Amino acid sequence: MNDQQTWVKIQREFDASIEDVWNMWTDPEMFKQWYGPMGMSVPIAEMDVVVGGIRKVCMEMKSPERTMSMWFTGVYKEVSSPSRLVYTESMCDEGGTIISPQSMGMPEGHPDITEVIVELSEADGRTTMTMVHVGVPEGSAGGGGWNQAFDSLEKLIGQSK
Amino acid sequence: MNTSDQLDAAFAALANPTRRAILAHLARGEATVNTLAEPFDMTLPAISKHSRVLENAGLITRGRDAQFRPCTLNTQPLQVVANWTDQYRHIWDARFDVMSGILQTMKESNDE
Question: Whole-prediction pTM value?
Answer without folding.
Answer: 0.62
